[in-house]
Amino acid sequence: MSIGTTATPPEAATTPRPDSGPDPVPALTVESLTVRFAGLVALDDLSFTVAPGTIHALIGPNGAGKSTCFNVISGVYRATAGAVRYADKDLTRLAPHRIAQLGVARTFQNIVLTHGTVADNLMLGRHRLTRAGFTASALRLPRTVREQRRHRERAAEIADFLGLGPAFDKPVGGLSYGDRKRVEMARALCMEPRLLLLDEPVAGMHPTERSAMAETIARVRDALNISILIVEHDMGLIMRIADSVTVLDFGRLIADGPPERIQNDPAVISAYLGTPVQDTEPEPEAEPEPESATDTDTDPDTGTDTAEATAPDTERDSEEAS
Amino acid sequence: MSDTRDTTGSLDATGSSDTTGTVDTLAAPAPATADSPSAQARWSGRLSPRGRRAATVAAGVLVLLALPFYVTSFWLQTGLFAMAAVIGAIGLNLLSGTTGQLSLGHAFFLAVGAYGYVWLAAEPSGTGAGSLYGLGLPPVLAFVLAIVLAGAAGGLFSPISGRLRGMYLGIATLALVFLGHHMMLNAPQVTGGFNGRSVPPLDILGFSFTDTSPDGLAVLGVPFGGLERLWYVGLALVTVAWLAARNILRGRPGRALGAVRDSEVAAAVMGVHLTRYRACAFIVSSMYAGAAGALLALVFKRVVPDHFGLLLSIDYLAMIVIGGLGSVGGAACGAVFVALIPHLLTKYADDLPLLTAPGTTGSGVSPGDAARYLYGTAIVLVLIFAPGGLAGLAHRRPRRKGDDSPRTRRFPLRTRTAPKEHTP
Fold first, then answer.
1. CB of B118 within 8 A of CB of B352?
2. Given CB atoms, is B340 within the 8 Å cutoff of chain A?
3. Distances A313 to A198, A248, A258 between C-alpha atoms, Å
4. What sign has the CA pseudo-torsion A309, A310, A312, A316?
5. CB distance from B424 to chain A under 8 Å?
6. Whole-number Å distance between alpha carbons of B152 and A2
7. A173 to chain B: which residues are within 8 Å by CB?
8. Is B163 on the interface with A (CB under 8 A)?
9. Which residue of B has its CA nearest to A130?
10. Which of A25, A90, A172, B208 has its CA 20 to 30 A from that of B47?
11. pLDDT for B22-36, tens place per residue?
């Protein structure tokens, strides 16, 4: 609440990035979004902006409204009030498949894959980029066959990118949890998204897989220059790869800014660890340790990586300040 | 690396999909470095089962082509009924098996196809109260238009079929059956009322699919009557229906329909237009039913309202459950099973215990009832012991030591082990 950057940074939203070609990645702007389920307020007047080409993290304790926010952005839930602006469109008014057409892809917290092989699942991701209808498919027109072959090759590339190459033609039912999690990610990437929504991409993975996935996410941003909105409970990972962080608690925004500022924000610390009863003075400084201590495996990296990640962030800070 | 995958990919696209392939790769995961030898090994290893499969298919086709030369008209007629059932079941399987939409209205669309063909092909006849309408179109055109008509009927229902799902769609389609039955009885000028209407025979460019004209046609000394001639039409229709369904299922629409069944939320965020795909599945399935109905009419030579009741719809559901949901071949096997049993029981009623031939007095069960008992039992057995149906049995691979991958099964209409719907 204290650092709430509700105003859109105009530079970030309008200036196309130099290397993004003719079709610049638009900013995602959540404006005063409110979602109520009967009496429960899941999101309360939430506003934040995902700048183009950045990794933006959405964090908060359980039940804070992160997944609700994802579901509204991807069109699965309707908003009670407010708007989600993306590419001159209000996503709250569009059906999920129309949002997908705009290049918004998402993964799910609990893996949602369809029957069939990895290839089948990835080809489902190519749905929005392919045209073949019932008649063309039934007749196996040359155009359809070519289209299928071409997109299958691209899907295979993406599978390789995520280390799923050897499993490409295997049924997803037989894959390990981590592999299925990667299939979800690959399927989302197969949509060639310009905005990627990742709902807890490393939840339940073991440390090696986590750091591999973190690296993959960073590589996706750098290679494809797309925006990524990520919900994750792994603070080490967030601090390492996120360019900016939005913190929710009980559906309200309590902090928004670069990770290192979030790390020391008193409101965030109290949301995660509770407010001290009496002496408020010394606690905030002492608290961050136990939290990051839970991610001991990723901790050594955190120091160096955040240092690297700070450079662009300070630039953006100055933009926001101006 | 990419070479090996390309070959396996193309093989899988044509071969019998996941079974043989996964066994090979699970048993001996090919090292990524040894590219060409592993590719070689796969080629030689894969070709033989593939060749065997091709040989089986070729043999089956030859037998089917040769049957009219050897069997009596009873078997030809029964076989043609089975063919109509195969086409209808493939269509219902697209809707219920692949898309997970329960339909009890298949009989209605069969009726639309059957009566549509009769109405389009028949010459108007009679006067006064007994007059019958008909457009007198060439029978082939009428056949095609009957399929289109059934599709259009499905399309008219699409505002409902695109929005309802599961059990609710089942109930809504149930209404169609009763509506259809009522219309058949109360539009006697089109349908002939309770007694039905005789079916104009098929005729392709003057070649009639009846016992006459050309009279006394014989091939290799075997007289070729209407059933023999129709047999090949049936075979051609089944082939087209089978290939089209297989291509749809392996292509983009099939993946989208499967996604609609497995998780509507995931399908929608992948860009699948849920309402449109649900409606399309319904329309395509109706067109299959229309083709099946028109073929059925040609074989029966008379269409009567009572044939197209709720029991027929249930027969079709039984076919796809016994055959295996989501599989074209399975639906075909199930259809043959369910379509053949009543005819066989009727033919051999005198020789079988507990059965009484129709028209005679006895204490036994009539063949029609016995058939329903039989495939009722078959459904229960299939659901308990082979949830994948006959197709699942055919694809079941022997479990090996060390192969801990769970068997992939196709479950009926979204039941327990289907991936859980995302509960955000």
1. no
2. no
3. 21, 21, 6
4. positive
5. yes
6. 60
7. 405-406, 408
8. no
9. B252
10. A172
11. 333 333 333 344 444
